[in-house]
TrEMBL record, chain A:
Gene: fluC
The protein's name: Fluoride-specific ion channel FluC
Residues that span the membrane, as ranges: 21-42, 62-80, 92-111, 123-145
Swiss-Prot/TrEMBL catalytic activity: fluoride(in) = fluoride(out)
One Gene Ontology term from the biological process aspect of the record: cellular detoxification of fluoride
Biological classification of the source: Bacteria, Bacillati, Actinomycetota, Actinomycetes, Pseudonocardiales
Coiled-coil region: none
GO cellular component, one term: plasma membrane
Organism, scientific name: Actinomycetospora corticicola
TrEMBL record, chain B:
Name of the protein in its database record: Fluoride-specific ion channel FluC
Coiled-coil intervals: none
Primary location recorded for the protein, binned into one broad class: membrane
MF annotations from Gene Ontology: fluoride channel activity; metal ion binding
Key words of the record: Cell membrane, Ion channel, Ion transport, Membrane, Metal-binding, Sodium, Transmembrane, Transmembrane helix, Transport
GO BP terms, alphabetized: cellular detoxification of fluoride
Regulation: Na(+) is not transported, but it plays an essential structural role and its presence is essential for fluoride channel function.
Annotated transmembrane regions: 35-54, 61-80, 100-122
Record carries keyword Membrane: yes
Classification lineage: Bacteria, Bacillati, Actinomycetota, Actinomycetes, Pseudonocardiales
Function summary: Fluoride-specific ion channel. Important for reducing fluoride concentration in the cell, thus reducing its toxicity.
Record-linked PANTHER family: FLUORIDE EXPORT PROTEIN 1-RELATED
Biological source species: Actinomycetospora corticicola
One Pfam family of this chain: CRCB
One GO CC annotation: plasma membrane
Length: 152, 124
């Protein structure tokens, strides 16, 4: 089995347990800030190009979150499992770009607003599609990347 | 103006994303469990704040900077989805299912509370 990180590690930022929170984090924080801004701009641009009308199914946010999860799965395999990338790559692309691209807050507020305005079917469909699509997307990304990288 | 709104989004996310990174580091260090409390915490907090922003009549610059930028950068689905799969792969099926369900229901509750606070405090 390849070099899989333990669950108790902060597998996304690559931190070893017990490490200091702030010390030595200047470069990583800057990379996360820059990556987060780029990811958020991409999400914002897609929202402008494909806006969801009031009460409609939030397709754009759903696809952003599913694609972001899939790319996260692929990324982790390529920076931590089949090879070891430069330590700044995971904070920049994983925590920054993909973290800034995907959004949980818009998902929660949109779903809550659909529920509160009587769009029950749309709300439940959106909740189920996001939860299953995001978790399934991350799983698919991991499996596809491991298969194509020959890790299994 | 669209270009100015983009600057607000970028600025908000440049603060929100590192905040998520540092909160996650701090919580994962103090809560030495396999449950991803860091991601859970930032997602629920961001849902609450976004609810307040969208529940009230916030100016569009605030919606861009705090809502789309900061809350979007603070919260994440990519890490939540990935950590959920990692827990399942490690055999922690109960934690895996709890992680995604607790996040979803707590996020909905926080968004609901935030919308109420926003409408009450900053409503038209």
């Amino acid at each position: 089995m390849p070099n899989r990180p333990e669950v108790s590690d902060d597998v996304v930022s690559g931190r070893e347990p017990g490490a200091p929170v702030l010390r030595g984090q200047g470069a990583a924080v800057a990379a996360v800030a820059l990556g987060g801004a780029l990811g958020a701009l991409a999400r914002w641009g897609l929202g402008l190009a494909f806006p969801a009308p009031h009460g409609a199914f939030p397709t754009t946010t759903l696809l952003i979150n599913v694609v972001g999860c899939l790319l996260m799965g692929v990324l982790v395999v390529h920076v931590a499992e089949v090879r070891t990338a430069h330590p700044i790559v995971r904070p920049f692309l994983g925590v920054g770009v993909l973290g800034g691209f995907t959004t949980f807050s818009t998902f929660a507020v949109d779903a809550q607003t659909l529920l509160a305005t009587g769009h029950l079917g749309t709300a439940l469909g959106y909740l189920a599609a996001t939860v299953l699509g995001s978790v399934g997307g991350a799983w698919l990304g991991l499996v596809l990347a491991r298969t194509t990288a020959g890790a299994r | 103006m669209t270009a100015v709104a983009g600057l607000w989004v970028a600025l908000g996310a440049a603060i929100g994303a590192p905040t998520r990174y540092l909160v996650d580091r701090a919580l994962q260090r103090t809560h030495g469990t396999s449950f991803p409390w860091g991601t859970f915490t930032v997602n629920v907090a961001a849902s609450l704040v976004l609810g307040v922003v969208l529940g009230g009549a916030a100016p569009s610059a605030v919606v861009s900077a705090v809502g789309t930028g900061f809350c979007g950068g603070l919260s994440t689905w990519s890490t939540l989805g990935y950590e959920t799969v990692r827990l399942a792969e490690a055999g922690e099926r109960t934690h895996s299912v709890l992680n995604v369900l607790m996040s979803t229901f707590a996020g909905l509750g926080a968004a609901s509370l935030g919308l109420l606070i926003g409408a009450g405090a900053f409503g038209p």
